Amino acid sequence: MAATFLNPFQQDRRLRDLSIRLVGIPLLGLGIPRLTGTLAGLEPRDALYWGGTLWFILLSGLLWMGNRWLLFRLRERHDWADRPVVKLLSIVGATALHTVSVGTLMLLAWYAVDHRPGLDWRGVAVNLAVILPVVFAVTHLYETLFLISDRLADRLDLERTERARLQAELAMLKNQLTPHFLFNSLNTLGVLIDESPPTARQFNKHLAAVCRYLLAQSSRDLVPLYQELDFFNAYIGLARLRFPDSLRIELRGFEALSALLIPPASLQLLLENALKHNAFSAQDPLCVEVELQRDRITVTNPLRARHHAANDSTGHGLRNLRERFQIAVGTAVEIEKNSRHFRVVLPLVRI
Length: 351
Prior knowledge:
Elements: H1 8-15, H2 18-36, H3 47-77, H4 84-113, H5 121-195, H6 197-216, E1 223-224, H7 225-242, E2 247-252, E3 260-262, H8 266-277, E4 286-293, E5 296-302, H9 309-312, H10 316-328, E6 334-337, E7 341-347, E8 349-350
Parallel strand pairs: 2-4
Antiparallel strand pairs: 1-3, 3-8, 4-5, 5-7, 6-7
């Protein structure tokens, strides 16, 4: 895969090396003449002493900023992953050429100001012998910072890509939610039209209110629990129109709801599944228990399997719910099933 490079200004912002330059350039400028003895014989009371100090700080700045600029330019052309040998030779060659050429000119100019007879090539060589290893060490430091910043940028890009993928997947799941609910509700409405047209009209009125909630929350990953509970109570009303004597819903622990969030229509989907997959009647009603405990809701219903339920079910509803919670909440839904009960635990987000 081809490498993607940033322009020098973008890299500069990411490196944040201003403090390194403010310390490193004067430090290098002060250290070079003292390590090489170039200012030997001069005292702080001499103007030439301070002039030489400033001159070597200027030399340090030219070397630092020039090599830094070269590193940025080389990063636009070569990458360690694709051509490591070319990258290494380019850095070493460009750094050495710039350092030797600029260092030689600046040192010869200093020796001319210092009124030394002839060209002091030995002094130039001694200074360059000290300067080059230091410059290569600083270059290595910059390359290390580059690699670290690239690693962090790659991780950030990966996280952004993964977040975009999850958001797209969540949007797809939410788009499936309303059609799934409408499919089941219209089936119920069809039955009511045959059994009790007045009840069907009342059901249709409540269904419109419920659909308004679903449409209003379609763009949200999480909703306040108190809003979800209001919607759930409205859906319970729809279910009781269909099964007036065959359904019992027990809500417990829903006293403090303001600090909790939940993916929309989660409770409705679980009640819908319980109604669809279990046998019940007025003589043996279905009891669904919904209990809030701290930051989780447990929904429990008895298992009374209907023989034709498996043929009617696509399994999309519960699978959709599990995936939505995994993406929006970051915690898996717990499902427990035994010979007598079916229990689902929904994790909530506390704010």
